[in-house]
């Protein structure tokens, strides 16, 4: 007799020697079937849950693996868009500065305000065409000395007093703007 067969307790049909009735045999069979079905169902459910967990873990790993290159691509696209926006902005600014002397004058005033206070004259260097486009009666401090610098690109302004200076050139302003954007992006990510 096998080990499993020894563990099964046979039903007690009484102390008599009569054989079990059909109803009693059917009852034993129904109980055995029910217990077997419940055990099989529980075992199958547990195995199915393990399979589902394993599949979910594989799917999560796959999703993470796919997301990593996309995040890098997102960063590259953001950087390219930022560069494109800066180049477009530079072209628009150069055009505006070339046709609007008031815009150049605004840059001169901003640069003079940013210049450290000190003794002596403040020097302002502009491209000759920008200087020629400024009105004759510009209201600036009397200590401002003008310099024409043909090497400066149109729209660039350089201001200095002694050793202190302000580069209000378009490239410098765009670099500052790009750094501000980067700093803002890094703050948002943190």
Largest sheet: 4 strands, mixed
**Over all CA atoms, what is the radius of gyration?**
43 Å
Distance between the termini: 71 Å
| SSE order, one letter for each helix or strand | HHHEHEEEH
Mean pLDDT equals 80
Sequence stretches where pLDDT stays below 50 over 5 or more residues: none
Q: What helical percentage do the residues reach?
A: 55-70%
How many separate helices? 5
**Strands across the major sheet, in which order?**
2-1-3-4
Measured by DSSP, the beta-strand proportion falls in 5-15%
Shape: rod-shaped
Tell me how many strands there are: 4
Q: Please state the structural category.
A: alpha+beta
Written description of the protein model:
The structure is a single chain. This protein has 190 residues and is an alpha+beta fold. Helices cover 65% and strands 10% of the residues. The chain is built from five helices and four strands; from the N terminus they run H-H-H-E-H-E-E-E-H. A four-stranded mixed sheet has the order 2-1-3-4. Helix 2 crosses helix 3 and helix 2 runs antiparallel to helix 5 (170-189). The chain is rod-shaped, with a radius of gyration of 43 Å. The mean pLDDT is 80.
């Amino acid at each position: 007799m096998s080990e499993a067969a020894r563990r099964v307790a046979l039903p007690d049909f009484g102390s008599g020697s009569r054989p079990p009735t059909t109803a009693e045999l059917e009852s034993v069979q129904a109980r055995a079937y029910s217990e077997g079905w419940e055990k099989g169902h529980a075992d199958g459910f547990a195995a199915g849950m393990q399979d589902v967990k394993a599949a979910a873990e594989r799917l999560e790993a796959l999703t993470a693996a796919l997301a990593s290159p996309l995040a890098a691509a997102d960063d590259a696209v953001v950087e390219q868009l930022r560069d494109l926006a800066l180049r477009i902005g530079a072209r628009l600014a150069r055009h505006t500065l070339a046709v609007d002397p008031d815009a150049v004058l605004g840059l001169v005033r901003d640069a003079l305000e940013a210049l450290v206070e000190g003794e002596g004259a403040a020097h302002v260097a502009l491209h000759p065409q920008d200087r020629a486009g400024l009105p004759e009666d510009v209201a600036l401090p009397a200590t401002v000395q003008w310099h024409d610098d043909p090497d400066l690109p149109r729209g660039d302004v350089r201001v200095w007093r002694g050793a202190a200076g302000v580069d209000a050139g378009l490239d410098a302003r765009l670099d500052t703007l790009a750094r501000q954007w980067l700093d803002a992006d890094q703050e948002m990510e943190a």
